[in-house]
UniProtKB/TrEMBL annotation:
InterPro entries: MATE_fam, MATE_MdtK, MdtK-like. GO terms for biological process: monoatomic ion transport. The keyword Transmembrane helix applies. It is a multi-pass membrane protein. This is Multidrug-efflux transporter. Keywords: Antiport, Cell membrane, Ion transport, Membrane, Transmembrane, Transmembrane helix, Transport. It is found in: Cell membrane. GO terms for molecular function: antiporter activity; xenobiotic transmembrane transporter activity. The keyword Membrane applies. The lineage of its organism: Bacteria, Pseudomonadati, Bacteroidota, Flavobacteriia, Flavobacteriales.
Length: 454
């Protein structure tokens, strides 16, 4: 594919597929980090998996506070690229990289020193407390590298250059396959760090990917060139990034907080249920990657077409992407329903109780995968239009107004016990998808754009 491709003309399906497929592949490869960690840590026992599972929502929360700003970079770059304002593409990219760097540095320091109190707050038991703290602390040291690569990915996606991140992630995933068992168990002069070793391996690969991404951006041969001279804070540009990025950050942090509070509910039922939840949540995050990939592709496509003042085509992109997400993920959900037990057993082969609980969790969620896909894609439409507040409100509806209260009521006020937490997922997915669809059909996101063009 051309390194800087426009998506404002031609067949929409071809444009959507050529952009979404590499994004989905890149996201699958990135999720392989967590799956590889879970595979090797599962050999240490359920407590090792539980320690990482209880840390993951908090890590995701910290990452989401800054990663929403990388989405703002995608929106600004895609709209500028669609309008063929290439100098503005470079300038917005430079401003985004500068802002993300300082935010990630601040979050890294704060997270490292807050690890212990956060683990106590979320309810880590004595059998997993030390491992969860060490994993969280080591992981926080890599935030700068992780954020820099996320920013690189977002900027490249804004101009349609989606293959470069795939190549980089592919290489680092293979490297992580080697480093994970090396640092978890140790070999020769390399000591084994146990649970924290998985985080050490991830930091090394994240640093390599960030260095490559920044080198590409400074070199300027792949569609975007950033400059140190353009990284000096520019008030109006930073204001745009913040106005677009803060709602996206709130959306993602709301999702992360929802995950954290769900873990808080789960911890009351023991480490085996925590491990089951962790396995189910990890597999769920892997399965919904196509929805997230379609959403990101939709954001770029809608952004470019809005930049080119092709509102009708942007709406056609939204309709097609929603249908693909619904039918495609419904099919994946059917497959996951029937293969839930063997997939779960692959990660924790010697714990039948955890296998049974995690498989049941997946089976309950599987029928709602298509609805989750519709919600994610429509969020991508709103983001591409620069209306990131809509995505934020829908996520708040999904996780806080519906999922957490339903999970609490079903698990504490009915005979379902912890299985009530499982049922909260499909219920919230269905209601949030319906709300997003109704809001999309009302067309307010288009009306705002028409007013801007007057």
């Amino acid at each position: 594919m051309k390194p800087n491709r426009k998506f404002t003309e031609g067949r929409i399906f071809n444009s959507l597929f050529s952009l979404a497929f590499p994004i989905i592949l890149a996201n699958i490869l990135q999720s392989a980090y967590q799956l590889v960690d879970t595979f090797w840590l599962g050999r240490l026992g359920a407590n090792a998996v539980a320690a990482v599972s209880i840390s993951f929502p908090l890590l995701f929360l910290v990452l989401s506070l800054g990663s929403g700003l990388t989405l703002a970079g995608t929106v600004l770059v895609s709209q500028a690229y669609g309008a063929e304002e290439h100098k503005r593409v470079d300038f917005n990219s430079s401003q985004t990289i500068s802002l993300i760097f300082f935010i990630s540095l601040m979050l890294s320091v704060l997270s490292y020193f807050a690890a212990g109190p956060l683990m106590r707050l979320i309810g880590a038991g004595p059998e997993i407390y030390n491992d969860s703290v060490s994993y969280f602390q080591v992981s926080s040291l890599g935030f700068v590298f992780l954020f820099m690569f996320f920013a690189f990915q977002s900027l490249m996606r804004g101009i349609g250059n989606v293959m470069l991140p795939v190549y980089i992630v592919l290489g680092t995933v293979f490297l992580n396959l080697i480093l994970d068992p090396l640092f978890i168990y140790g070999y020769g002069p390399v000591p084994g760090f146990g649970v924290a070793g998985a985080a050490v391996a991830s930091i090394i690969t994240q640093a390599i990917s960030a260095a490559i991404g920044l080198w590409i951006l400074f070199r300027g041969k792949s569609g975007i060139k950033i400059y140190f001279s353009q990284m000096k804070p520019h008030y109006s540009t930073l204001k745009k990034i913040v106005n677009l990025g803060i709602p996206a950050s709130i959306e993602q942090s709301t999702r992360a907080l929802g995950m954290a509070f769900m873990v808080l509910l789960v911890t009351g039922f023991g480490s085996e249920v925590v491990a089951a939840y962790g396995i189910g949540a990890r597999i769920l995050s892997f399965i919904i990657i196509p929805a997230l990939g379609l959403a990101i592709a939709t954001t770029s496509l809608v952004g470019q077409n809005i930049g080119a003042i092709k509102i009708k085509r942007a709406e056609q992109v939204a309709n097609l992407s929603s249908r693909i997400a619904f039918f495609g993920l419904t099919g994946i959900g059917i497959l996951m329903y029937f293969f839930a037990v063997p997939i779960t057993a692959f990660f924790i082969p010697n714990d039948p109780d955890v296998i049974q609980d995690a498989a049941y969790f997946i089976k309950i969620m599987a029928p709602s995968f298509g609805l989750l896909g519709v919600q994610q894609v429509l969020n991508g439409v709103f983001n591409g239009a620069g209306f990131t507040k809509a995505s934020m409100l829908i996520s708040i509806l999904n996780l806080w107004i519906i999922r957490f209260p339903v999970a609490f009521m079903l698990s504490h006020k009915t005979d379902l016990s912890y299985e009530g937490i499982w049922w909260a997922f499909p219920i919230s997915n269905a209601i949030a998808a319906l709300a997003a669809f109704i809001y999309f059909k009302q067309g307010y996101w288009k009306l705002r754009l028409f007013r801007r063009r007057r």
